[in-house]
Amino acid sequence: LPDDNIWSIFCDSRDRIWLGTSTGLSIYENGKFKTFPSYNGLDDDKIYHISEDLLGNIWIATANNGVSVYDGKSFKNYGINDGLGFSECNRIFCQPNGTVWIGSFGYGLTRYKNGKFERVGTKENFKADYIFDIESRKDGGFYMLTEQGLYEYTQDDFTLINPVDFDYTRSSDLMVDTKNEIWISTYGLGVYKISE
Fold first, then answer.
1. Is the torsion defined by CA of 26, 68, 135, 106 positive or negative?
2. What is the C-alpha to C-alpha distance for residues 180 and 132, in angstroms, rounded to an integer?
3. Which of 44, 69, 112, 154 has the fewest CB within 10 Å, making it most exposed?
4. Are 170 and 186 in contact (CB under 8 A)?
5. Residue 49 belongs to what H/E stretch?
6. pTM of this prediction?
7. Which stretches of 53-148 are assigned E, i.e. beta strand?
């Protein structure tokens, strides 16, 4: 591994393990690690999050230069000039319908759909700037944990549901279990379990 600081770990559809580190992207395959540093086409070495889209492309959220997409051969990089809207990306969520959601830490949310980036905001009833985590729902929608609270996304619209009353700015992670119960971990406030 290029670094002991691991920001993200992801298992793709081919059972390969991807690791986002402070000094590059690594893949564990056939018992060996291979690292992709920025000079191999990746736009930034600090990797915050990794996901996979419907076509098997690996989406990489970087700390300073937007997102990179790896198609198995080369990287395509997207940033502010491509319509992303921000350069610090900390979450990526790929929906089964092909839409990719990219969250930032302080600059809101962008959607990639039909080959275009689009900022998400009040038109979709979304007002958050800090995206902590995104987890899928069984109906094809998802939950998004933000500093404003917990959003539910269904049918092209966001609803702020906030099932528990606490300081959401202290949220750290989100999980939906097999019973469709929502778990929210926090910094200093323990863990919350929400049953639908």
1. positive
2. 19
3. 154
4. yes
5. strand 47-52
6. 0.91
7. 58-62, 67-70, 75-78, 89-94, 100-104, 109-113, 116-120, 131-136, 142-146
